[in-house]
């Protein structure tokens, strides 16, 4: 007789709902026998994927927390992370050992409402990574609202090709578990493999960052017919890439959020051109989310966000809540934005991506968006270097068929003088982090190397 429950599919096999539940209960018993207590935290590698799923669900039964880390992380770096967050245990899936990392008699009992469910590192795509703490109520609030917005049900099939050691991947696991939907785990992102997974397994929901979407589109063809939601987040989606995807039938939904907000706090409906003008920068806050921002009729300001899915705070050895949050529970990211007349949020780049060039405030986000629309440009990032005369010098690092002289001429007619890049570096592909975002540090290093 077939198991009617959800199915988990990994490279290690196919697991029905009842079989998975049995293995989770077994894993929870192993943890309890080792002395794991509610409120404590276990570090575990993000591969093998099945083992991480078992560990997360088993820890949920106990009321303990998980700190997933990239499986390639060396022992010294891993121990440093554990100490910075006061982690008590290390799980080693190869030997099925739960190893104590700290003197657990020194920590007082942790109240259920302040227990850490998930510790997760920020991507570090634009700065120094930090470790974020989330509680079970916040993860539940996020999963409930996102599932409702995206129509995730027991009939849905999620493909997770984002690493579960990043918030984008981890959040999918909680959403699928809450909804009882099918889940397909793909280790890492490889465009041909992901394309086959989308088609073979009848995937309805997938989450991508824009560079991943671009690589899937490069394979050609129409979107798989089973797809209902292609969630795009992590960084701004350019209008040319959105238009290209919509023309091929990809059902795009734009999302805004970050590790500190437990993934998304605002999400559009299905993206469609309106009166010929496509705007992928507008998103609607999820229920219960408060956004403090000015009207779009005035200059943008840094956002302030409050809601039930916000982090407990940045990690510290005592796992004390509140670090990184302002009075009243507000979180202030580095993002600039405004609210439209109908209450939608427009993201306008980052406050730390404004540069003063020749006495003029220049938004690197706007420059990148304009250059992205140039013929023969498929990907672009803008890098700044100091300039003794102008303050900063812009370099456009891009991929595409346009040569540097053609792109320079195009920029001269579409950007103001201070906004115009003074140098161009063409690459076959822009390097990515394992989160799928552009590796800005590596891109900046390439610019420095090219300048001699």
UniProtKB/TrEMBL annotation:
Coiled coil: none annotated. It comes from the Bacteria. GO terms for molecular function: medium-chain fatty acid-CoA ligase activity. One of its GO terms (biological process) is fatty acid metabolic process. Signal peptide: none annotated. Residues 368-437 form the AMP-binding enzyme C-terminal domain. It holds the Pfam family AMP-binding. Residues 11-314 form the AMP-dependent synthetase/ligase domain. This is AMP-binding protein.
């Amino acid at each position: 007789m077939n198991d009617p429950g959800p199915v988990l599919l990994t490279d290690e096999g196919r697991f029905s709902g009842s079989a998975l539940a049995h293995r989770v209960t077994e894993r929870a018993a192993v943890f309890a026998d080792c002395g794991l207590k509610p409120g404590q935290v276990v570090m575990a590698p993000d591969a093998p994927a099945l083992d991480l799923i078992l560990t997360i669900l088993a820890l949920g039964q106990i009321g303990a927390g998980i700190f997933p880390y990239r499986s390639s992380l060396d022992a010294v770096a891993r121990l440093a992370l554990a100490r910075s967050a006061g982690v008590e245990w290390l799980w080693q899936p190869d030997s099925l050992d739960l190893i104590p990392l700290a003197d657990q008699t020194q920590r007082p009992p942790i109240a259920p409402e302040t227990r850490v469910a998930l510790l997760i590192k920020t991507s570090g795509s634009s700065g120094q990574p930090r470790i974020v703490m989330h509680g079970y109520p916040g993860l539940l609030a996020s999963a409930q609202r996102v599932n409702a917005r995206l129509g995730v049900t027991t009939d849905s099939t999620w493909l997770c090709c984002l690493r579960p050691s990043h918030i984008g991947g981890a959040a999918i696991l909680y959403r699928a578990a809450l909804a009882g939907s099918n889940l397909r785990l793909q280790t890492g992102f490889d465009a041909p493999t992901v394309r086959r997974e989308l088609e073979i397994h009848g995937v309805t929901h997938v989450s991508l960052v824009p560079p991943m979407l671009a690589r899937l589109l490069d394979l050609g063809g129409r979107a798989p017919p089973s797809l209902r939601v292609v969630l795009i987040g992590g960084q701004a989606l350019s209008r040319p890439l959105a238009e290209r995807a919509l023309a091929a039938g990809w059902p795009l939904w734009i999302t805004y959020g970050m590790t500190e907000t437990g993934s998304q706090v605002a999400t559009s409906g299905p993206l469609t051109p309106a009166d010929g003008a496509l705007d992928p920068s507008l998103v609607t806050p999820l229920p219960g989310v408060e956004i403090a921002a000015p009207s779009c009729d005035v200059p943008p300001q840094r956002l302030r966000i409050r809601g039930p899915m916000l982090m407990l705070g940045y990690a510290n050895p005592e796992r004390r809540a509140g670090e990184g949050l302002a009075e009243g529970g507000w979180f202030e990211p580095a993002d600039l934005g405004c609210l439209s007349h109908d209450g939608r949020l427009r993201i306008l780049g980052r406050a730390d991506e404004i540069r003063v060039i020749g006495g003029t405030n220049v938004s690197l986000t706007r420059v990148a968006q304009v250059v992205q629309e140039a013929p023969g440009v498929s990907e672009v990032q803008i890098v700044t270097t100091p300039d003794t005369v102008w303050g900063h010098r812009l370099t456009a690092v891009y991929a595409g068929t346009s040569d540097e002289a053609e792109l320079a001429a195009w920029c001269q007619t579409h950007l103001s003088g201070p906004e115009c890049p003074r140098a161009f570096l063409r690459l076959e592909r822009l390097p990515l982090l394992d989160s799928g975002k552009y590796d800005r540090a590596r891109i900046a290093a390439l610019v420095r190397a090219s300048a001699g």
